[in-house]
Write a structure and sequence with these properties.
Order of helices and strands: HEEHEHHEEHEHHEHHHHEHEHEH
Distance between the termini: 49 Å
Strand order of the largest sheet: 1-2-4-3-6-7-9-10
Radius of gyration: 19 Å
Helix content: 40-55%
């Protein structure tokens, strides 16, 4: 039982390569008209599915020097999960936005016969995608600064497993940087929602087992056994349930079936677990730094936000606190389920992010 549940929790955090069989074909949801979906050849070697919106008019007329927002999804998901609410919302706030489907999902093919994806490959894809976003931002303003202001680097926003990929990206910059300013030159900030903690899921696994065997089994069945793809009730509870006081989670049965279809499409291949276990971000954390990452002390102008969800069935409060300590900040909590970007309470996380952008980034 312990081994099975351990695999389930760990497996949840792993995006997988998609194979679209003749018997199962699904179309990525059409985003709002302001967004475009395209396949972009990245310098990391993949043709990546990207949903984005870059507006030259808004950027030139706006006196505020806003950085572009880059969204990274977690497992069972792809770029589509940000296109429903968050991306249109932040377009309305004057931001350019872009979301990447990580290597191994339905929109970003990992390669013929590829069954495992290493975390370093996701890091390389994130790095290459950020470079593409910077190029798009420069094209929007004709390569010119606004009123003497330089074009600002992106803000990285990630959910669940995507948070772990972002941590590894920042760690890579720190390890290869020639000077302390490289991180601030690469990003304007990082915001993580319901992120997998830097130590992975080992400690969290033990906490779940101690708290409730019933809930442990739900996670095992829903994630390791992929029952969330076929079991509506279980899928709703794991990703969208807002608690007994909020019976309406804002996800209709029709929407739930659609999301389950996307989950199926985006969960075929797996990440290399052995490789990941040897490369967890927490491996380089010093106890004397109270769990903070080495790169935190080099983030002079860039800022961090760590958000947990009160009704999260997957990532517990201790995991949120660990991630917050890793970034040297206090965690924020929102009244939302694990999928903060979908359902009736999506605005809670979006407003928290907007407030942080206004106060810390602009």
């Amino acid at each position: 039982m312990f081994l099975l549940f351990y695999m389930s929790i760990f497996t949840f955090c792993i995006p997988r390569r998609t194979l679209v069989h003749a018997a199962f074909t699904i179309t990525t949801p059409s985003p709002t008209s302001a967004l475009s979906t395209q396949t972009i050849p990245l310098t990391s070697g993949v043709n990546a599915e990207v949903i984005s919106s870059f507006s030259a008019k808004d950027n030139k007329s706006d006196s505020i020097n806003r950085p572009p927002l880059v969204f990274i999804h977690g497992s069972f998901h792809a770029s589509w999960c940000w296109a429903k609410h968050y991306m249109p919302y932040f377009i309305q706030q004057g931001y350019n936005v872009a979301a990447l489907s990580l290597r191994g999902t339905g929109g970003t093919f990992a390669g013929e016969g590829v069954k495992k994806v290493q975390i370093s490959e996701h890091v390389n894809d994130v790095s290459a995608f950020l470079q593409w976003v910077k190029e798009q931002q420069q094209e929007c303003v004709g390569g010119e600064s606004r009123e003497g202001q330089e074009i600002r680097p992106p803000v990285l926003i990630a959910h669940s497993f995507g948070g772990l990929a972002v941590m590894k990206y920042l760690e890579k910059i720190h390890d290869t940087a020639e000077n302390d300013a490289v991180i601030d030159e690469s990003i304007s900030g990082v915001a993580l929602f319901c992120s997998v903690p830097p130590s992975g899921n080992g400690k969290m696994t033990m906490r779940y087992l101690r708290r409730s065997l019933k809930d442990s089994w739900k996670i095992t069945a829903g994630l390791a056994m992929k029952k969330c793809i076929t079991d509506k009730s279980l899928c709703r509870e794991l990703f969208f349930d807002c608690g007994v006081d909020n019976p309406d989670d804002g996800i209709s049965d029709e929407e739930l079936e659609t999301y389950q279809g996307y989950f199926k499409r985006d969960t075929v291949a797996t990440i290399d677990l052995g490789d990941l276990a040897r490369k967890l971000p927490s491996a380089k954390v010093s106890e004397s730094d109270e769990g903070a990452a080495p790169f935190v002390f080099e983030m002079k102008t860039s800022r961090s936000l760590v958000v947990g969800a009160i009704h999260d069935f997957i990532v517990d409060s201790e995991g949120v606190k660990e991630t917050a300590a890793y970034f040297g900040v206090k965690p924020s909590l929102v009244d939302s389920p694990h999928d903060v970007m979908l359902g009736a309470k999506w605005e809670n996380g979006a407003n928290t992010l907007l407030r942080w952008l206004d106060e810390e980034i602009l």
